[in-house]
């Protein structure tokens, strides 16, 4: 079965919209975008459209790729104090000269709705999406092996603990190709977030493995341009449990981000009434 996130995401958005209206909230979400990464531009537009559709105020801050890091940090500190903003995210990836970990750590734990900070009060939307798709597969997790292929410790932070809480023996790799191919071949659950179009091929994965593709890349073939994941679609020949790109983890990530923003606004309302 294909791991489709669209239907679940729609249910989450509808529920969040209902709760925002029920509690008369005006949640505010600030998104900081640095540079012109094609995938980031698309994701930001999707977040903006979805936020407005359910009653979340969306503020977008765009910086050129050569922006000084201090300027971005100063903005985050300002947004931390803004009572109308309940959630702050830095759209990843960022240009190489920018330290993404420092930016994330600057965000208040009460507003870190992306859930990547060390002291965050939220579970990362992408991690929530991964868990949802694993549940959707209905494949048992107890004492099974999970492998995470990531290009940043920010993404994998907290994820290992989440998967292990579900009984998965979890391993993380940032290494070069030849060092992680063997573990990947034995993985019952594979989470891929490398930013490398079509990198994972059928011969690299275990038969009937559950594969969550978090990659979102711009693939150019001649005059044709399209967005694709890190996993080659031909992997479907090896396993039916593959999340599509687009339509898999993406819609769930956006939906859970909006839900986290609602929760941040709700917590803020509760604290004001205490």
Reconstruct the topology from this structure.
Elements: H1 6-22, E1 28-34, H2 38-54, E2 57-63, H3 69-81, E3 87-90, H4 100-106, H5 125-137, E4 145-150, H6 153-156, H7 159-164, E5 169-173, H8 177-185, E6 189-193, E7 210-213, E8 217-221, E9 224-228, H9 249-273
Parallel strand pairs: 1-2, 1-3, 4-5, 4-6, 6-7
Antiparallel strand pairs: 8-9
Helix pairs in contact: 1-9, 2-9, 5-9
Q: Which features would summarize this protein structure in a list?
A:
274 residues; alpha/beta; Rossmann fold; 2 domains; four-stranded parallel beta sheet; three-stranded parallel beta sheet; 18% strand; globular
Explained architecture:
With 274 residues, this protein is α/β, with parallel strands linked by helices. The protein folds into 2 domains: 84 residues, Leucine Dehydrogenase, chain A, domain 1 (Rossmann fold, 3-Layer(aba) Sandwich); 124 residues, Rossmann fold (3-Layer(aba) Sandwich), CATH 3.40.50.720. Helix content is 41%, strand content 18%. The chain has a 4-stranded parallel β-sheet, with helices on both faces. The protein has a 3-stranded parallel β-sheet with strand order 2-1-3, sandwiched between helices. A two-stranded antiparallel ribbon has the order 8-9. Helix 5 crosses helix 9. It is globular, with a radius of gyration of 19 Å. The N and C termini lie far apart (48 Å).
């Amino acid at each position: 079965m294909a791991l489709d996130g669209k239907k679940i995401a729609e249910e989450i958005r509808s529920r969040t919209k209902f709760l925002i209206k029920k509690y008369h909230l005006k949640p505010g979400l600030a998104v900081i975008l640095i540079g012109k990464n094609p995938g980031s531009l698309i994701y930001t537009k999707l977040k903006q459209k979805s936020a407005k559709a359910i009653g979340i105020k969306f503020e977008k801050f765009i910086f050129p790729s050569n922006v000084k890091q201090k300027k971005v940090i100063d903005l985050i500190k300002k947004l931390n104090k803004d009572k109308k903003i309940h959630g702050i995210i830095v759209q990843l990836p960022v240009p190489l000269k920018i330290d993404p970990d420092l930016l994330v750590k600057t965000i208040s734990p009460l507003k870190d709705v992306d859930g990547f900070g060390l002291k965050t009060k939220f579970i990362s939307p992408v991690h929530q999406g991964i868990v949802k798709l694993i549940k959707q597969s209905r494949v048992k997790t107890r004492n099974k092996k999970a492998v995470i292929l990531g290009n940043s410790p920010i993404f994998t932070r907290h994820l290992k603990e989440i998967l292990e809480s579900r009984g998965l023996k979890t391993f993380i790799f940032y290494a070069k190709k030849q060092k992680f191919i063997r573990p990947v071949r034995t993985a019952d659950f594979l989470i891929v977030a490398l930013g490398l179009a079509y990198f994972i091929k059928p011969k690299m994965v275990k038969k009937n493995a559950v594969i969550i593709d978090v990659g979102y890349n711009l693939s150019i073939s001649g005059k044709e341009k399209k967005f694709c994941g890190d996993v080659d679609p031909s992997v479907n020949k090896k396993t039916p449990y593959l999340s599509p790109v687009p339509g898999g983890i993406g819609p769930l990530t956006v939906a859970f981000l909006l839900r986290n923003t609602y929760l941040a606004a709700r917590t803020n309302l509760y604290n004001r009434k205490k």
